[in-house]
């Protein structure tokens, strides 16, 4: 889980089981480590900005950047975005 200092790692048991199954499958395929971003707040509720769908504990941000090695604590606290579109916006 990334950005653990923000305490956005709570979710419905079904969501947690989904994440565990996904992580196991990705690991078994040798694809790297699944990175989990925001899930939900401890008792549900609003985030400071956006993420309304996360209030029920059924939504999660899953990063498609699958590192081959485990990230350090510092990397997990301050993840770097992965650009999927070129600067000119013409290429993916």
Spatial sequence of strands, sheet with the most strands: 1-2
Low-confidence stretches: none
Q: End-to-end distance, in Å?
A: 27 Å
Backbone shape: globular
Number of domains: 1
Q: Structural class of the helix and strand makeup?
A: mainly alpha
What is the helical fraction, as a range of percent? 10-25%
- Based on CA atoms alone, the radius of gyration comes out at 14 Å
What order do the SSEs take from the amino end to the carboxyl end, as H and E?
Answer: HEEH
Organism: human gut metagenome
GO cellular component, one term: outer membrane-bounded periplasmic space
Pfam family, one: Peptidase_M74
Protein name: Penicillin-insensitive murein endopeptidase
What does this structure look like?
This protein is mainly alpha-helical. It has one domain. 23% of the residues lie in helices and 4% in strands. The chain is built from 2 helices and 2 strands, in the order αββα. It has helices spanning 13-28, 73-77, and strands at residues 35-36, 62-63. The model has no long low-confidence stretch (mean pLDDT 81).
